[in-house]
Design a protein that fits this description.
CATH superfamily of the largest domain: Type I PLP-dependent aspartate aminotransferase-like (Major domain)
Helix content: 40-55%
Structural class: alpha/beta
Catalytic activity: (6R)-5,10-methylene-5,6,7,8-tetrahydrofolate + glycine + H2O = (6S)-5,6,7,8-tetrahydrofolate + L-serine
Distance between the termini: 14 Å
Protein name: Serine hydroxymethyltransferase
CATH class of the largest domain: Alpha Beta
Shape: globular
CATH topology of the largest domain: Aspartate Aminotransferase, domain 2
Organism: Streptomyces racemochromogenes
Number of helices: 16
Radius of gyration: 22 Å
InterPro entries: PyrdxlP-dep_Trfase, PyrdxlP-dep_Trfase_major, PyrdxlP-dep_Trfase_small, Ser_HO-MeTrfase, Ser_HO-MeTrfase-like, Ser_HO-MeTrfase_PLP_BS, SHMT-like_dom
Strand content: 5-15%
Number of domains: 2
Family: Belongs to the SHMT family.
Length: 422
């Protein structure tokens, strides 16, 4: 009998321990295609669960409000130096708790309530914190949004420029959560400069691709780069703000004491490990494989008659419009889940359906790439998706069970990082 991976947890709280074990099994046996999810390494998992959890460390290295920070200061400094080296930035702050708080810090640093801010509209692929109405950023600031062209699903940079010059935002965001194409950071920088705006590149989704050289970097162009540390970067659930030295004081002050108290030191340690891993040649190979897999999967889906927003992908993400298949995105997503294929339902540009019951699904290749799947496996993945969507349209539940078994059989040969072998 195999020893339990968390013996103290099992002894103290067997109910919770059983849920963790169930989640390990679920992650091992299902094909995880949500583009914002991934597998962290065993080393990142271990660093995230250390006694660093026990420390309060308000302030920054060498400038703490608590004593006993000799080791914590070195942990945070290590993460900062690794971030600066990996992304080639002048300043990095690794303390934000997650992506949304990181973006809030940007507002606090550069804008006042009521100021105009500009970002991509949420239904077009943007993020809530880019000034969308239901977010605090859309309530406290005057948000204006740009989108994509209806005919090709691509950003119209001339239209973005016209809107920016008309509205004169204090902050201009580029990046989002459902953008399958390469972002032209240089074009956004030119627009921001002409409009007098601070350019913020939110690269939460593509940070790992940038670190691995599989996507252009915003660092030469953006005033601030905001990112989560999970997703394609394969770190713990945290965030970083990187910027030019001239903005360092404003960013640091906005994070602490502006928005939060003590950093989560165990997360900082996990970030440091992930940044170290991302500096290795194997990570570069992984990042390029993520893109190669996404392109191969997109091609296989197109061959099977699926409609893809913008006609394909340049990165890790594919946005599918299921209107022509006669299946709403939510119905398809839940059927795929029962088939062992984990996706999320998602709006597509100009979607006539409501956000909680949209026309599309969003998929990506980071997790399957981390397991070692390659382009040769993508036709099978596309076939499973096609069969599951067809089964959803017909209400054919047994067909979903067959697919789930096939998925589990393949994944058994490709164990996930950080998980016990199923």
């Amino acid at each position: 009998m195999t020893a339990h991976r968390q013996p103290a947890l099992l002894a103290t709280d067997p109910e919770l321990a059983s849920l963790v074990t169930a989640e390990e099994t679920l992650q091992a046996q299902t094909l995880r295609l949500i583009p914002s999810e991934n597998y962290v390494s065993a080393a990142v998992l271990e660093a995230s669960g250390t006694v660093l959890q026990n420390k309060y460390s308000e302030g920054y290295p060498g400038r703490r409000y608590y004593e006993g920070q000799q080791n914590i200061d070195r942990v945070e400094a290590l993460a900062v130096e690794r971030a600066k080296g990996l992304f080639g930035v002048e300043h990095a702050n690794v303390q934000p708790y997650s992506g949304s708080p990181a973006n809030l810090a940007v507002y606090l640093a550069f804008a006042k309530p009521g100021d105009t801010v500009m970002g991509m509209a949420l239904p077009m692929g943007g993020h809530l914190t880019h000034g969308w109405g239901v977010s605090a950023t859309g309530s406290w600031f005057r948000g204006v949004q740009y989108g994509v062209r209806a005919e090709d699903g691509l950003i119209d940079y001339d239209a973005v420029r016209d809107l920016a010059l008309a509205e004169r935002p204090k902050i201009l965001f580029c990046g989002g959560t459902a953008l399958p194409r390469t972002i032209d950071f240089e074009a956004f920088a030119s627009i921001a400069q002409e409009a007098g705006a601070v350019l913020v590149a939110d690269v939460a989704h593509i940070a790992g691709l940038i670190a691995g050289g599989a996507h252009p970097s915003p660092v030469p162009y953006a005033d601030v780069v905001s990112t989560t540390t999970h997703k394609t970067l394969r770190g713990p659930r945290g965030a970083m703000l990187m910027c030019k030295e001239e903005h360092a004081k404003a960013i640091d002050k906005a994070v602490f004491p502006g928005l939060q108290g003590g950093p989560h030191n165990q997360t900082t340690a996990g970030i440091a490990v992930a940044l170290h891993e991302a500096a290795q040649p194997s990570f570069t190979a992984y990042a390029h494989a993520v893109v190669a897999n996404a392109k191969a999967l997109a091609a296989a889906l197109l061959e099977r008659g699926f409609d893809l927003v913008s006609g394909g992908t340049d990165n890790h993400l594919i946005l599918m419009d299921l209107t022509s298949r006669g299946v709403p995105g939510k119905v398809a997503a839940k059927a795929l889940d029962r088939a062992g294929i984990v996706v999320n339902y998602n709006t597509v540009p100009f979607d006539p359906r409501k956000p909680f019951d949209p026309s599309g699904i969003r998929i990506g290749t980071p997790s399957l790439t981390s397991r070692g799947l390659s382009a040769e496996h993508m036709p099978a993945v596309a076939d499973w998706i096609s069969r599951a969507v067809d089964a959803a349209a017909k209400g054919d539940e047994p067909a979903l069970g067959v697919i789930r078994s096939e998925v589990a059989d393949l994944l058994a040969a490709y164990p996930a990082p950080g998980l016990p072998v199923a």
